[in-house]
Amino acid sequence: MENRLPRTGSDEMAFGLLSGALAANPFPMLAQMRSQGALVPLPLPIGAGHQTWMITRMEDAVRVLKDQAHFTVNPTSIGMEDIFMANSVDALSDPSDFLFRDAMISVDEPDHRRLRRLVSQAFTPRYIESLRPTIQHMADELLDAVQDQGQMDLVQDFAYPLPINVISEMLGVPHADQPQLRVWSEALARRMPGLGRRDEQSLAHIRAFAAYARQLVVEKRQHPANDLTSQLVQMKEAGDHLSEDELLSMITLLIFAGHETTSNLIGIGTLTLLDHPDQLAKLQADLSLVPAAVEELLRFNGPVTMGAARFATEDLELAGQPINKGDVLLIALSSANRDETQFTQPDELDIVRTLGRHIAFGQGIHICLGAPLARLEGEIAFTTLLKRMPALHLNVPREIITWRLSSNVRGLTALPVAF
Ligand code: HEM
Questions:
Q1: Which of 37, 271, 307, 322 has the fewest CB atoms found within 10 Å of its own CB?
Q2: Rounded distance, CA 165 to CA 178, Å?
Q3: Nearest CA to ligand 1 atom 40
Q4: 225 exposed, middle or buried (CB, 10 Å; 0-12, 13-18, 19+)?
Q5: Tell me, what's the pLDDT at 4?
Q6: Beta strands 52-55 and 328-331: pairing type?
Q7: pLDDT at 211 > cutoff 60
Q8: Which residue is closest in CA terms to ligand 1's atom 27?
Q9: What are 4-15's pLDDT values in tens digits?
Q10: Which ligand 1 atom is the nearest neighbour of the CA of 367?
Q11: What are the pocket residues of ligand 1 if the criterion is a CB atom closer than 6 Å to any ligand atom?
């Protein structure tokens, strides 16, 4: 459903974009912001005493994502109060802060390079490609379970379980624990500082998750297996400069980043194709177009709306706008991916468009580590779905489809389809 545009005003924009009110269709609001400027001031309680800016256009987004010297993901590196982080998992504040504190997405060079290099040793393109038969088998199994019913909730039955099964398998998480991981992971997703719901129940879930991750490490240390967690534990044992906290943060980030995002690519992507029957027909007629379609779906309606917050390391100018040291920059990936100066007819879905560059996976040193995995999962999911269910169609009126936004990830709550 298209959202009506709220009245203009940066308060409403900030609220609409970050609270989930515009999760179904943030694009008219993003277009309005782009027309206001490349940098739009937002009244957000992120950095006390500092202005928050939303970056709306590709060129500036890429500049900020690539310029580590002037934009940091770690506010303490420029002497700012650590607004995101608690010091201990037992702290009264949000323990998810602790869990992410040492993750590679939260640190600059040289720590970032060290952490990313370590995990990249395990996360090689060859390893990802070797997962193809496993992922295919998982996709087929999920569809086997619903095939005879003639209908399913594509989110619950397919888009959600597939990536969580894959990442759990990679990390050596037992199948029986996966439903629990989902509950914890959803609690983790609600952590946007100053905006997220930090209710007692969520905090309890996050503490339980932290305890679980610790226990997983203990088990893999005692009984190493053929999985990523065991490899990471052994790298640490081999003196590869991975602290216990970093190990925990790494596992947390992989579980978290590895499941909500790709699920939502599959869910939103399917709905987007159903919304564009001409494009769906084109794809069904030639499934070799699926990898290109995945890229266009990521550009057109990607699940991650914003990158992690960046902080200016000194006074500088960006898009003609003076920025003060400590100002917060939120990079609207979904807006940059519809930038009229970069794409012809950006609001059209065109699965065969010659796509120069999109930033659905970010850019620069923090560019998504899991992009090759997400692309492979997307390719297998859409190919299998369209091959096995050529008559796929919505099983409810379009207007009752509901959306949600957790932190900066958009997704569908359910997608009832028949086939
Ligand atoms: C469609 C699916 C996905 C999308 C759209 C996505 C998007 C992103 C984006 C935009 C970033 C950069 C954030 C920034 O610079 O602020 C990122 C980073 C990251 N992603 Fe993904 N992601 C996806 C799937 C995955 C998967 C499957 C995994 C892992 C299994 C993963 C792991 C990571 C990690 C570890 C980082 C941090 C990298 C670093 O800091 O160097 N992501 N992702």
A1: 322
A2: 8
A3: 105
A4: exposed
A5: 34
A6: parallel
A7: yes
A8: 258
A9: 333 345 666 666
A10: 12
A11: 65, 104-105, 116, 167, 253-254, 257-258, 261-262, 265, 302-304, 307-308, 333, 360-362, 366, 368-370, 373-374
Q: Whose CA is nearest to atom 1 of ligand 1?
A: 262
pLDDT at 13 (0 to 100): 65
- Return the CATH architecture of domain 10-418: Orthogonal Bundle (1.10)
Q: Provide the Cα torsion 112, 114, 119, 124; round to 10°.
A: 100
105 Cα: distance to centroid of ligand 1 (angstroms): 9
Instruction: Report yes or no: 388 and 284 within 8 Å, Cβ to Cβ.
Output: no
* CB crowding 271-298: b at 16 or more within 10 Å, else e: bbbbebeebbebbeeeeebbebbbbbbb
Query: Domain boundaries in the chain?
Result: 10-418
Of 341, 370, 385, give the one whose Cα is nearest residue 38: 341
Mean pLDDT of the chain: 86
CA of 257 relative to ligand 1 center, distance in Å: 6
How far apart are the C-alpha atoms of 334 and 196, rounded to whole Å? 20
What distance in angstroms lies between residue 370's CA and the mean position of ligand 1's atoms? Answer: 6
For residues 349 and 356, give the distance between their C-alpha atoms in angstroms, rounded to a whole number: 15
- 58, 265, 331, 368: residue to mutate for ligand 1 pocket, most atoms within 8 A of CB: 368
What is the percent of the chain with per-residue pLDDT over 70, rounded to a whole number? Answer: 85
What is the per-residue pLDDT for 91? 37
- Among protein residues, the one with the nearest Cα to ligand 1's atom 15 is 366
Which residue, by CA, sits nearest to atom 14 of ligand 1? 307
For 334-392, the DSSP string reads HHHTT-TTTSSSTTS--TT-------TT--GGGS-TTHHHHHHHHHHHHHHHHHH-TT-
| pLDDT score recorded for residue 190 | 65
* Cα(326) to centroid(ligand 1), Å: 24
Q: Per residue in 102-133, pLDDT tens?
A: 788 889 999 899 889 888 887 888 999 999 99
Q: Which residue's CA is the closest to the ligand 1 atom numbered 43?
A: 368
3-state secondary structure of 46: coil
> Which of 127, 261, 299, 377 to mutate for ligand 1's pocket (most ligand atoms within 8 Å of CB)?
261
Task: Write out pLDDT tens, residues 344-376.
Answer: 999 999 999 987 789 999 999 999 999 999 999
What share of residues in the chain are helix, strand, coil (percent, to 5)? 55, 10, 35
C-alpha 156 to ligand 1 mean position (Å): 22
